[in-house]
Amino acid sequence: MAEITLPAACPACVGHVTADVPDTGIRFSVPSVHCVACISKVERAVSALPGVKSARVNLSLKRLHVDARSSAEMEQRIIATLADIGFDAFALDDEALLAVRDDVGRSLLAKLGVAGFAMMNVMLLSVAVWAGADGTTRDLLHWVSAVIALPTIAYAATPFFTKALRALRKARLNMDVPISLAILLATGLSLFETMMQGEEAYFDAALSLTFFLLAGRYLDHRTRSMARSAAAELAALDMPYAFVRGAAGLTRVRTSDLSKDTVVTVPQGGKVPVDGQTLGDVVEVDNAFLTGETRPLVIHPGGRVYAGAVNLGGAFEMKVTNLGQDTLLSRIRDLVALAEGARTRYTSLADKAAQIYAPSVHLLALAAFVVWLWISGDWRHALNIAISVLIITCPCALGLAVPAVMTAAAGRLYRKGVLVKSATGLERLAETREVVFDKTGTLTTGDPKVVNSPSDEALAIAAGLSALSEHPYAKAITRLASARSITAAPVTDVTTHPGLGTSGTVEGHPVRFGRQDWVDPDAPQHAGQAASSLSLPSGAHEVFLFEDTARNEAKPTIAALHDLGLPVAVLSGDDPQITDRLSADLGADFAMGGLHPDQKLDKIKSLQGPVLMVGDGLNDAAALAGAHVSMSPGSAMDATRLAADFVLMNNRLDVIPQTIRVAKSARARILENFAIAAGYNAIAIPIALLGYASPLLAALAMSLSSICVSLNAARLLREAKS
Amino acid sequence: MSQLVILIPISLLLGLMGLLAFFWALRSNQFDDAMGNSRRILSDDHDDRPAGRD
């Protein structure tokens, strides 16, 4: 059987089979570009290739866009060129990327531009009024301001109006209600005053309010769209393809185009693309993503395999049984959605502030109107004061308080390789009281290692038998042999026995390497430990013990979490003994193995206080969604990343304590910002209530408080450097 | 007063030109890679076009 062996992690690296894709050039993800020298190097090398019109790096997204006809050879040539100069590149799937074009961000930026333009012009005109223009000159300036302000408010402030309406329809108050009210009343009052040839118009205040708040909205949006786009990129990297055997050999087909009962081929080392039943041989798969169990699973003909399992033996054929809604993956997604439902009840700090702020300000303005009407009897004067209270207490600083901090924190974390996916993720992370880790693939590397020390002779023969295998134990043997610089013994007639092991001949003697009961039924069992036996030409037997070893940074990470005062627990689907031993080695406070996905979720819910869950497997997805806050490595499966609040792009654990520290200081900055906004209101409200507020004072106070809040948020960026 | 009738339209026109330039920059994707553009200024390679579509 002629096999196409492809790197399993990167199915998109081979060109498109369909030729009718519109030619928009080719996009690559180049994660290691980080400086101007990298940009020049990459662009120069790729532009020099024949057939490439131009190449442009986007540093923010770490992407390369190449203007060239899209073809498999071109993609591979570019990837090879970049590999030569030291950059890893991955072709991106256009369809997955185009789904997340950022139109909202662009429209927010356009609105921000218009509001900024209008604000500056009206402010210039207002300076003339403040400087003492009166009579018809003042009226003219007011009218010109009105002509600029009215269409601007109608266009640029719509995001606030729509959100305020949506909240009011649900009979709720959010930050947008007082914002909209302040903008609308300020504009209405100013228009009325202008028509009545009055002295004071607040057009500049209405516009600067719109501008500052739009700036906050835009920052907020940009932070999240950056995370969304990076998440979409991860999805685009593992587009699901299946190989179908046709008349012309193997062809690549999107899994969405498959139909039931189609027979697909899973190459050696490849991922199972859809749920199905195996045909023909006994096969061995790695199901760790599903169960957390590190030992390979043997599947007999007709047995079920699930999408995402890795084929450890030779290529095999399988029949598609479930598609779309029926797959295990989509059932897990349902479980995730169910668990997430509980979390949407979380009220963010901004919402909490709005719930206190909005009603009290409205009541205050109403009280001001009533009292002044009673004192002076002049309803126009009373209305003026009531509206000036609304304007001067404008939630401008409050509107910037959260997004400015979040942008600074998310930007800082992005540079460390942490993606903040959820809007309230940082706030929830700051509240964490306990950290729960998944074991396989999260605390451990997922690649087993040989943990005893076999003799040189045995290792050489085992290496000879394992040379061509994709089996994790075989790979571990090969790694150990090269680490001890032992050359593999020449083994002939190597035959793989799926589920059992490999056999061969060394110098005329048969040798076997594999399951203990197959090689050496009399050998003592090693409880709670993965073991393989090797029969030597002499007839003796030697045992190899394997263990999924911890990541290098796992122990320091757990120590750093202890320093932060957070207890650490390990919950795993793997064997309880293995789990206990590993967590004891790493210094975790609590460990539990042999858990099913829903048991994990229950366990997390039963823990005291808010829990941070870190996991990578599909079996963790429900626990991730159900925990107070969650993280998953970028190498995790799509559904798992979807459920997590944070994605660790560089798959390193030691960023977790750093992220928690950033979240805590972000929370501190947010609370400080609320204090600044409150302190400013404490001074401004009495002035407005007494009727001393003027448009000039409102403009000054508003800008000052906004700048204070933004600068306080920027302190987060400075802490990053020190 | 009479000067204002000329000066205000002029100032508005200048501001409007700035706004149009901003819209042009927005439409030609110049705000898509703020981080890259801030570094490119340091590059020795001649760089005379806005960021490509991406």
What's this model, at a glance?
The complex is a heterodimer of chains A (722) and B (54). Chain A is of the alpha+beta class.
Termini distance of chain A?
Answer: 60 Å
Give the overall shape of chain A.
elongated
Look at the helices and sheets of chain A and give the structural class.
alpha+beta
Number of helices of chain A: 25
Largest interface pair: A-B, 35 and 28 residues
Bin the strand percentage of chain B. Answer: under 5%
Averaged pLDDT of chain B = 79
Q: Point out poorly predicted stretches of chain A.
A: 1-22
Extended strand count of chain A: 26
- Terminal Cα separation of chain B, in Å? 50 Å
User: Which whole number gives the mean pLDDT of chain A?
Assistant: 81
Main sheet attributes: strand count, strand direction, barrel closure of chain B: none
Helix content of chain B: 55-70%
Number of contiguous helices of chain B: 2
Computed over alpha carbons, the radius of gyration of chain B is 17 Å
**SSE pattern of chain B, N- to C-terminal:** HH
Helical residue percent band of chain A? 40-55%
| Assembly classification | heterodimer
Low-confidence stretches of chain B: none
Question: How do the helices and strands line up, and which of them pair or pack?
Answer:
The complex is a heterodimer of chains A (722) and B (54).
Chain A (H helix, E strand, L loop, with lengths): L25 E4 L6 H12 L4 E7 L4 E6 L3 H13 L5 E2 L2 H5 L4 H28 L4 H22 L1 H12 L6 H20 L7 H35 L3 E6 L2 E6 L8 E4 L9 E3 L4 E4 L1 H4 L5 E3 L4 E2 L4 E2 L4 E5 L7 H16 L5 H28 L2 H14 L3 H20 L2 E3 L4 H6 L3 E5 H5 E7 L5 H11 L5 H12 L8 E6 L3 E6 L2 E7 H4 L10 E6 L5 E10 L3 H10 L4 E4 L4 H11 L3 E3 L4 H10 L4 E4 L6 H6 L2 E5 L4 H6 L2 E3 L6 H35 L5 H27 L1
Parallel strand pairs in A: 15-22, 15-24, 22-23, 24-25, 25-26
Antiparallel strand pairs in A: 1-3, 1-4, 2-3, 5-6, 5-7, 7-13, 8-11, 8-13, 9-10, 9-12, 14-26, 16-21, 17-18, 18-19, 19-20, 20-21
Chain B lengths: L1 H26 L6 H7 L14
